[in-house]
Structure formats: structure tokens, C-alpha cells
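subagent[fold] <- orchestrator: predict structure for attached chain, return C-alpha cells only, no commentary.
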Amino acid sequence: MGGRGLEHGFLRKHMENGTIEKYMDREGFLDRSGVHAADVLTQIWKKNGRRWLQRAYSGSTEGDTGQIRLYDELATPAGEIAAYDILKSHCRSGIIFLFEQAIQLGLTDPSHRVLDIGCGSGLEACFFAEQMKGNGHVEGIDISNEMVKRALERKNRLGLSNVHFLRASRDNLPYEDQAFERIFCNHALTEGNNQSYNQYGAMINRHIIGERIKELRRVLHDKGVALISEPSQPEAVDFTEEYTGSLIEFSGMKIVNVRIKSSPAPVEDQAYSEVCFVVKK
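subagent[fold] -> orchestrator:
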């Protein structure tokens, strides 16, 4: 991989300076491991956060409709940040791990055009853009209008001019072929699969995800690299690696490496793992 030594140098510099942790703290992603997200929301809102989360997640597997409803809800303000950020901050160690992988793969290199699929409130995309020091270009897409609003608020607050956010579907990316040298796809590949397809559900889900990967492949430059991360229960890591990996390879992409990190979960307070696929055409 070209420039690999330089990219490892970037990571070493970030680790020595605490760049990632300082950014996380500044953006409200404090270490909340060991504390249930619902309890944090209850304390902020003075109402039952657990009941609100249960309602927000109900129907979230109903395809795009369920995902839009879920993330519009999770964009609800909780103090100075969104409820989504409260949940995501419980995955702090996992997010730091993903930032480290992203830096190693050149997602903060200003010579690369970067796409963040399923950008949420813009935490990662804004970090990539900030580290580019006003150069380069980052695009972030999300299916939820409310999440895009939160991402734009973060962009404007940080004074970033080299990142752009828009509402778009991961299944129909509004970009030309080979538009990006780097793609970041965090928990946005399989999440929200429709589970109401009767006995043909598994087959239809595989088709949907396969077509989604082909769309990612279409906008990835021929010499580009994608970082695809999927969550997994620790006991199911092998299955997640095999299942997702088979879909990636069946869709015409090559897995360069698989990296795994165990982290606390955002909602159920159980251990979970990040299964990260480094992928090329």
C-alpha cells in the first residue's frame, strides 16, 4: 500500500499527542463505559430514558423506513449533544480503535477524497477533515435528515470548509464512478435489514447487502481502500467475519486484512466486538 510508512507515522504522531482522545472529549464523547445509556438520558431529560430508547428502536429493522425513524429520533438533543452521541460514546474504545485504523489507511491524508457512509452526527467525517488542515475533501452521507442537521452543526461549529454533508441512501450513492480514494463505512453495511421478508428473508437480505457493496465498489477508486466495520457479539465474531467477508468477496472486492477489537456495548452493557475489513477492488 503506497505511503504506508508515512501513514504509520501519522498514527504515531496522533497517539503521542493524544489527538484522538482530545477530539473525543471536546466533542462530548466522554468515557461512559459501565454506565447504561438510558440512565444518562434519564438524568439529562428528567424522564425515563430506557422507555424512550425502547420506543426509538422499535421497528428499526424495517428497512430504510425504520432506519430513518430511528435516527431521526436519536438526533434528539440531550444537553449539548444528540442522544445518538450519548449512545455512541459508550463505544469510545471502539471508536478510538476505528480512528486508529482510519489514520493508518490514510483517511486523514489531504491528498485523498474521502467518503463516510452512514456519517451520523459527523464525528468521524469532521475528524478526518480537521486533520487535513483545510485541505483535501470529505463527504458524509446519512439517510436521516435530522442526523445530517447535527453533522452540519458540528461542521459549522468547528469552522470546517473541506467537509460536506447531505442526505443520501447507501444503496444509491450520488457520486460518479471512482470518486473516492478512501471510503469509511462504520456499522452502515448490514444495519436495518428488513426482517419481515417471510421465509425468503435471509436470501433477500444477502442480495440487498451484496448490491450495497457493489455500489460502494463503484465509487471507490481503482487504487482506493475501504474500511468497513461491523459490530458483533464476541461469541459470533467468527460468524460475522465469515458472513460479511463472503458478501464482500462475492461482490467483487478483495479483503486485504481483518482487524478485531472488543469494546463495551452502547445500550445493553454487554461486551461486543468491532470486526473491521480493509478492502480493495
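orchestrator: received. Logging for downstream: The two ends are 13 Å apart (CA to CA). The first strand starts at residue 77 and ends at 78.
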